[in-house]
Amino acid sequence: MGAAPLKVAVFDAKKYDIDSLDRANAGRFTLDYLTASLSTRTVAAIGQAKAICIFVNDQCDAQVVEALASVGVELIALRCAGFNNVDLAACRRCGIDVVRVPEYSPYAVAEHTVALMLMLNRHLHLAYQRNRVGYFLLDGLIGFDMKGKQVGVVGTGRIGRATISILRGFGCRILAYDKNRSPEIAEDAEVRYVELDELLSSSDIITLHVPLFPETRYLIDERAIEQMKPGVMLINTSRGGLVDTKALIAGLKSGRIGFAGLDVYEEEAGIFFHDLSDQVLSDDVLARLMTFNNVVITSHQAFLTREALDNIADTTLANLAEFAADKRGASLSNVVLPS
Ligand code: NAI
Predict the structure, then answer these.
(1) What is the DSSP code (8-state) at residue 331?
(2) Is 173 tagged catalytic?
(3) Which is catalytic among the residues 239, 256, 266, 322?
(4) Which of 164, 210, 216, 273, when mutated, tests ligand 1's pocket best, judged by the most ligand atoms within 8 Å of its CB?
């Protein structure tokens, strides 16, 4: 008799996750779908599973990691690229491997980034609402040509580069900042690498594509906002913690920031990906942010394309297959190790 199939507890499972993971799994492993997010309270739901599959807002701090180890979990399979929600040192201490999906569709996120820019620039969110109630005047809807505008791209990894490639089609001039300069970008005559201060003070639009690490937390704070051009557009489709939201609100109130497009919010866990439509919103900072007519918020949906979901599912199942074949540690293709 062969070994029992690997059991995997999939947290925060939405219909689109279940559809794509079931298709990629094709019955190989037992995927146990849970609607709950991972926390010390929900660890008990794991049962006999040796592996868990989590998403961006499943908090995996040291306490949760220890609880996972105590119920016999050996693998955390992130079905996303970012891993800021996992305490990697605690995982190593507890003998739990962590794998992720490093790339699934940089285009999905880059295209959403540019969608936010165009929506804000051409006031599409206001035009849509106005026209539905018969208000067909154009006052207040004046936009600007993207051509010739200076766009500052913070982080020139996969998503930053895909964003640059789209923006070049509009004829934007690109300033880029990254602590590891990409040779592909450095050779591009149309893009200029600069220090962060110059990018902040010279850009008409600033878009963030660096991961959330301790050193990038609040990269955009009061000081950074003070350096920006009056009326600048700020786009964040990376991680909420890159921006000090209270400083952003002050910048919007003073007019220093003319537009903000946000797909992520530093306190989004427990809010984004949930139906709270029958509740009072208790987050006063988010509530204030949503009152600005020059702010567009989407709830962490930049990744959400059919192609991205299929790629996420395929890589996640490949990660689980390696684990089921007894690969561990550095021999796992998409392992994340503590720095
Ligand atoms: P990547 O790893 O390809 O690129 C990240 C870039 O940031 C690298 O070039 C790196 O050198 C640079 N970087 C890292 N630390 C830095 C620092 N301290 N200062 C300056 N540059 C620094 O990552 P990728 O695929 O481009 O993704 C970027 C981020 O986008 C992810 O970490 C994730 O947080 C976010 N993301 C958001 C999604 C959404 O649905 N909203 C979906 C997927 C990713």
Answers:
(1) G
(2) no
(3) 239
(4) 210
Nearest CA to ligand 1 atom 37: 238
CA-to-CA distance for 31 and 331, rounded, in angstroms?
23
Ligand 1 binding pocket includes 229 (Cβ within 6 Å): no
In tens, the pLDDT along 109-146 reads 999 999 999 999 999 999 999 999 999 999 999 999 99
Cβ contact 8:52 at 8 Å: yes
The answer to whether residue 239 is catalytic is yes
Among candidate residues 169, 160, 171, the one with its CA nearest the CA of residue 206: 160
Clarify whether 132 is annotated catalytic.
no
- Three-state SS for 20? helix
Query: Ligand 1 centroid to 210 CA: how many Å?
Result: 4
pLDDT tens track for 171-189: 999 999 999 999 989 899 8
Residue keyed to tokens 């009072």: 280
| 3-state SS class at 68 | helix
The answer to whether the pTM exceeds 0.85 is yes
272 lines ligand 1 (CB under 6 A): no
**Hey, whose CA ends up nearest to atom 6 of ligand 1?**
157
User: Which residue, by CA, sits nearest to atom 1 of ligand 1?
Assistant: 157
Q: Which of 93, 43, 92, 113 is nearest to 72 (CA)?
A: 43
The sheet with strand 7-10 has its strands ordered as 30-33, 7-10, 51-54, 75-78, 97-99
Distance CA 257, CA 287 (A): 18
Q: What are phi and psi of 56, to 5 degrees?
A: -60, -35
User: Rounded CA gap, 289 and 295, in Å?
Assistant: 7
Sign of CA dihedral 89, 90, 94, 100: negative
